[in-house]
Amino acid sequence: MVRGSDNGSEKMAEGDNSAELLKEKANQYFKEKDYENAIKYYSEALELNPTNAIYYSNRSLAYLRTECYGYALADATKALEIDKNYIKGYYRRATSNMALGKFKAALKDYETVVRVRPNDKDARMKYQECNKIVKQKAFERAIASDETKKSVVDSLDIENMTIEDDYAGPKLENGKVTLAFMKEMMDWFEDQKKLHRKCAYQILVQVKEVLSKLPSLIEIALKETEKITICGDTHGQYYDLLNIFKLNGLPSETNPYLFNGDFVDRGSFSLEVILTLFGFKLLYPDNFHLLRGNHETDNMNQMYGFEGEIKAKYTAQMFQLFSEVFQWLPLAQCINNKVLVMHGGLFSEDGVTLEDLRKIERNRQPPDSGPMCDLLWSDPQPQNGRSISKRGVSCQFGPDVTERFLNQNKLDFIVRSHEVKAEGYEVTHSGKCITVFSAPNYCDQMGNKGAYIHLRGSDLKPEFHQFTAVVSFLFVSLVFCPLSLVCSQKINSVLFPH
Ligand SMILES: [Mn+2]
């Protein structure tokens, strides 16, 4: 009996030992920022020892890094179920909830951390940041109810904004965006100079007018001889955007583009990216297309840098106007009745038709569920059916879901973005679901290629073009994000797994 139980615990110890080795291996991958492999080995460690809170907590952090906030939250919760005194678990759960915009839930966990570790400066800072947001949200709700929403446009007097004599930058010509203006502005931005606020406001007011007249589902027809270039996420990587134009030509009436959302946040040059894209929209309204991504929203902009960037470069009022403009970005685009493009993907329920998309009232922050939410947030998955989202918003859809949707709507395939891919693009669901991502070396560290797609009217066969990042380390990297816990890549004692 005794001997037997000894053997049992020896075996257990062996299992623990190899689980520890797997964890060490995972930690090494994490250090090298190879989060996919880190997740793989934490998962293997958990198979051997499913009662270790640290493994869950470490995997939670790796999920946070890959923006799988739904999974990150589940792991942090699991770590706390196993060990409710495990302080890092509270940190992780708070971070996940922050990323999901659940600030009150996050605040509760930060409170716990601060109570247990009164001398932890980092924890105190996070607690204060979070507390500020909770109060601000409550204030916004309070004023929203007694004031009908007024547009920033009504309170601007753009005509009477004066451009100082010492301003040597680009100006609109008689209030109009021209090709000469666009070229001058792109050079100006390349030198990291600031566009006069009058010009920025002119672009914003005009583009709001143009976008608000568009339907939620854009439908275009390419002639036999025409082609369109589809780009995925650009995320404030201005120098990579310029590189796309260098490689693929400037936008024009004969060189149409479709940019598939997530123009802002993450990168330090979101303002430069979005004003360049808006400028081309004004110059070629019928041949230059923009769709909304999940980052063209207030919640994301608050957490991932764009709001901070606009406040630093201009004012809070200008950010408000950006927010109004974003609400008018169309949600999907159909090409030759055969190819449907959207930022995220397909829907949480079967039966959604193109007619349903046309009817979406999009001038709002996206709801938590329904077709508008899904278009901006969902992801494909390899297995059939649907599962809960790794991000904690919308769903994941399988090849059968894609097949049914395409059949019902008489479409050939979908093109979406929203996920970083090593090669810049990925073809899944037997060629029916294509991902394209145009921010190479995403966040200055993912090492991925960027890609864009050519679609020709003659055959609508996707043709992929890959490119690598321009040397962005030459440029000062500025982070405009108030919530360092969510988005900073800085590794400190709290963030690093153990
Ligand atoms: Mn996205």
From TrEMBL:
Ranges: TPR repeats: 19-52, 87-120
Keyword set includes Transmembrane: yes
Keywords of this entry: Acetylation, Cell membrane, Cytoplasm, Hydrolase, Magnesium, Manganese, Membrane, Metal-binding, Nucleus, Protein phosphatase, Repeat, TPR repeat, Transmembrane, Transmembrane helix
TM helices/strands, residue ranges: 467-487
Residue ranges of domain Serine/threonine specific protein phosphatases in the record: 291-296
SUPFAM superfamilies associated with the record: Metallo-dependent phosphatases, TPR-like
Cofactor: Mg(2+); Mn(2+)
Domain of life the protein comes from: Eukaryota
Chief localisation class: membrane
UniProt GO molecular function: metal ion binding; protein serine/threonine phosphatase activity
A Pfam family that the UniProt record links to this protein: Metallophos
Tagged with keyword Secreted: no
Catalytic activity: O-phospho-L-seryl-[protein] + H2O = L-seryl-[protein] + phosphate; O-phospho-L-threonyl-[protein] + H2O = L-threonyl-[protein] + phosphate
Catalytic-site annotation from UniProt: H295 (proton donor/acceptor)
Top class in the EC scheme: hydrolase
This protein's GO CC annotations: cytoplasm; nucleus; plasma membrane
Family: Belongs to the PPP phosphatase family. PP-5 (PP-T) subfamily.
Annotated protein name in UniProt: Serine/threonine-protein phosphatase
Upper taxonomic lineage: Eukaryota, Metazoa, Chordata, Craniata, Vertebrata
Gene behind the chain: ppp5c
